[in-house]
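Quick start: what a row looks like.
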Amino acid sequence: MRVKALVLFVVTLALAASAWAAATETVLYSFCAQSSCTDGNQPYGSVVADAKGNLYGTTYYGGTNNAGTVYELTNSGGTWTETVLYSFLGATNSDGSNPFSGLVFDTAGNLYGVTQYGGASSQGTVYKLTKSGSSWKESVLHTFDNISGDDGSYPVDKLVFDSTGNLYGTTVQGGKFGGGIVFEFKKSGSTFTYHVIHSFATSASSAYYPYAGLVIDKNGYLYGTTYYGGVVWNAGAVYQMREVSGVWIFSVIYNFLGDSLGQYSDGDLGTDSAGNLYGTTNVGGSFNLGETFKLTLGKNNAWTESVIHSFQGYAKKDGAYPYYAGVTVDADGNVYGSTYQGGSSAGNNLNYGTVYKLAASTYKESLLWSFGTSGDGAYPEHEPILVNGKLYGTTYAGGAHGQGVVYEVIP
């Protein structure tokens, strides 16, 4: 089913507080504009852009079966139009239900994503959307089934392609040891073959529950974070996977130490041209409201953490708790992200989340936007993307109908 709706609510506001950077925010689309929310509602995941600047994403609920949607936003002369490309059938059907994460394109323009639930065992799916003319067709590449203990279950973050077209992702649970998995779709011609390439063990001496997806560096190595594990404090870890002669080697490269050094990472990592890694923890830091960190590779393959920003909360006109929100790093080394709570708008204390920038090298923070102004979004769950100098993202609440928005922030 295809549903089209003109943007019902567009608002552009300039930040006035002198402590903030000069930025503007525009609500591109407010969800649940149609009866029974057939246009989707509660977009938890991030968006992805095509070459023309059109945006694509998912909603966790809504659609014709209230099991979530895949949508497209197109811009014509400054007016954004939403089209539902696909409505999931629901948890009792084979196609999947409730996509929590965003999407990724392949080189042919096909879209790929995961659903947290649905499939034969209701443990989630990997799906593909292929465009044919003006319509999109959905196909399920894999249904997670950990009944026998040899597969993952409940994928919640987006997929990533490597330079040769192989596809990778994670599941929060499942695998041989119950702590989640890293999986690969090995490409051969036009087909994919599914493999579990790592199973996480549920012990503090290891690393487990990878809520975050993966990032690939210039060497083709995979990096991700786990919410728990990390030797002593069970505060989470950062791991690396590299393929050597067809065998995947897993190693923990950093263990979070808790308190001011951060704990519980569930957002995607970013990487710069020098190979440094950046990410967030949703608590910890100097004020226990979360942090943004940098990992630098040194001698003897040892990685060192630097806390480049500790969030201070709305009382200090700052963000707090970057739940599921990792970072986006631009070509100059600037770091962008969002927080689930915190912020302040026009001098009024608010707690509906922020979009922020950390300047390259100095990592001085600019609070680009604070949500909660009448009609804009509330509670962003994932980091924004950067397209032609503009930031695009989602909030799962707020907007004209209270069911989430797609926003644009111009720094």
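That is the whole record. DSSP finds no helices and 40 strands in the chain. The CA atoms of residues 196 and 396 lie 31 Å apart.
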